[in-house]
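Side project, low priority. Logging it here so it doesn't get lost.
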Amino acid sequence: MGNNRTFEKKPFCMKYFLPTVFLALFLVSCGAKQPAILSSSTNPTETATAHEPFLDVTEMAPNKKYALSGEYPVMVGEKSVSNQRRYIASLAGPNGEELIFHRRGSCCPYESENGMMGSALVDVYEVMYDGLKEPILLYISFYDEGPLYIPHGFTKRKLN
C-alpha cells in the first residue's frame, strides 16, 4: 500500500527562528560602535598622496557620524575601488597631516539596487596619521553615489 506519512507543521517560532537570529546579528553588527567586519583583507598600507583626490570634496559633513559609522557611509559610486581611494586622498588630518590607510574589510549590508541581489556592503578603511594614537575607521560604499563631504575630525587635503 501507499506511504501514509503525515507531516507535522513546524511550530511558528521555529519557522522564524533563523531569520530572526540573522536580523538580530545584522542589527547588532551595524548598530554597534564598531560593526562586525563580515569579510577581511590584508591589503597593503597606502599613502593618500599616492592617489589623485576628488576636487569637489570641500564642505564639512552635516552629520557628525558621516563616514565614521556603517550607518552613514560615504557613497562614492561607480563600483570603483579607485573612487574609494580618491575620496580618502581628498582628506587630511585635523592639522593637514598626510593620511595612510588600508582596507580592513566589509560590513553593514544594506539594500541597494546596485548591489548583488539587491544588497550591498560597506567597505571599512583603517586610517592613520602622525600623532594619532588609534586608527580611525572610515566607512565607504562604492555601490551607490551621494554627496561627498569631509568627515568630522578631518580636513581637506591641500594640493601642492
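Brief comment: Confidence is low (pLDDT under 50) at residues 16-32.
Revisit when time allows.
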